[in-house]
Design a protein that fits this description.
CATH superfamily: Alpha-ketoglutarate-dependent dioxygenase AlkB-like
Helix content: 10-25%
InterPro entries: AlkB-like (IPR027450), AlkB-like_sf (IPR037151), ALKBH3 (IPR032854), Oxoglu/Fe-dep_dioxygenase_dom (IPR005123)
CATH class: Mainly Beta
Cofactor: Fe(2+)
Shape: globular
GO molecular function: catalytic activity, acting on DNA; demethylase activity; dioxygenase activity; hydrolase activity; metal ion binding; oxidoreductase activity, acting on paired donors, with incorporation or reduction of molecular oxygen
Structural class: alpha+beta
CATH topology: Jelly Rolls
Order of helices and strands: EEHEEEEEHEEEEEEHEE
Keywords: Dioxygenase, DNA damage, DNA repair, Iron, Magnesium, Metal-binding, Oxidoreductase
Strand order of the largest sheet: 1-2-13-10-15-8-5
Number of strands: 15
CATH architecture: Sandwich
Pfam family, one: 2OG-FeII_Oxy_2
């Protein structure tokens, strides 16, 4: 059983990469050794699911695996899915508390995505569900394979690219969800897996 002390909590005295309005990338917040240990811990710890969604009238499995973790009773809904939360492990609770302290946001939910290789992906979308509020703050910690992250301005359709490395923490806040969509496209040349932990605050009064 892994303990909290087995992992270095994210640190934020590292290089910050400026991006379009509302996006900030804190690079190398965890050492490669600790990031790799956390990646393999999550492979075993998370109750992975591959939900089905309806796209243009066709039911399909999402091209990645997911696990939703949150405070008790905080269901999360998107694309017609309702996800009931798994409880926090001591490790993930410690990371959540560290990020909450760093960013001044009382994170209470975590959506974990596992991209098994470059064939798994995430299409264009905004995290604009009502239960996240008008201008949510989402902290996304990357582990494992380096993957291309894209941001697209909704009005001009200008696309910005960011190569997310293991240990990077991307903060999306302000008008990032109002003004932009983002995606993680397929990269068939990538053979390794990637896990990203997306910490967020779910408004309790929006939970049904």
């Amino acid at each position: 059983m892994q303990s909290v002390t087995d992992f270095t909590m994210p640190l934020f005295n590292t290089k910050v990469k400026s991006l379009p309005n509302g996006f900030i990338c804190h690079q190398n917040t965890i050492s490669s050794v600790k990031a790799d240990a956390l990646y393999h811990y999550l492979l075993d710890e998370c109750a992975w699911q591959q939900p089905k969604i309806v796209i243009y009238g066709k039911t399909v499995s999402i091209p990645r695996l997911q696990c939703y973790i949150a405070d008790e009773g905080l269901e999360y809904q998107y694309s017609g899915l309702t996800m009931a939360p798994e409880p926090w492990s001591a490790v993930l609770l410690a990371i959540k508390n560290r990020l909450s302290h760093t960013f001044g946001v009382p994170f209470n939910a975590l959506l974990v995505n596992w991209y098994r290789d470059g064939q798994d992906s995430m299409g264009w979308h905004s995290d604009d569900e009502p239960e996240l509020g008008r201008e949510p703050c989402i902290a996304s910690l990357s582990l494992g394979a380096s993957r291309l992250f894209k941001m697209r301005q909704k009005q001009t359709l200008q696309v910005y690219n960011l190569q997310l490395q293991s240990g990077d923490c991307l903060l999306m806040s302000g008008r990032s969800q109002l003004d932009f969509q983002h995606s993680l496209p397929k990269q068939p040349s990538v053979k390794q897996g990637r896990i990203n932990l997306t910490f967020r605050y779910v408004l309790p009064h929006h939970v049904r």
